[in-house]
Design brief:
By secondary structure, the protein is mainly beta. It has one domain: OB fold (Dihydrolipoamide Acetyltransferase, E2P) (Beta Barrel), CATH 2.40.50. Helices cover 13% and strands 45% of the residues. It has a seven-stranded mixed sheet. The longest helix has 7 residues. The protein is globular.
Length: 91
Amino acid sequence: MAESLSESLQSGRLTVVEVLKEAGRIRVKGPADACTEVSCGEAVVEATEGPTGGLEALHPGDIIRLEPGAKGAQRVLVVRRVWDELTSPEF
């Protein structure tokens, strides 16, 4: 059975659990609640306001998507910031 649009969008989203800036890695949790460490190297973090810099722009709780490249994640796209999640009317 094919995935619905919302299932497809959810499966590509990850939640930032920890940012390991010195190591150039982030620990993320996927839809199956399994944590994984991702090597980001010189990844560019982008949000709706545009490029925001490197890994220092990420915070635990941010919801992201990764666009992989040859050396790990080259672009980290912030789908929703942690502070937006906490102020959502869904709560």
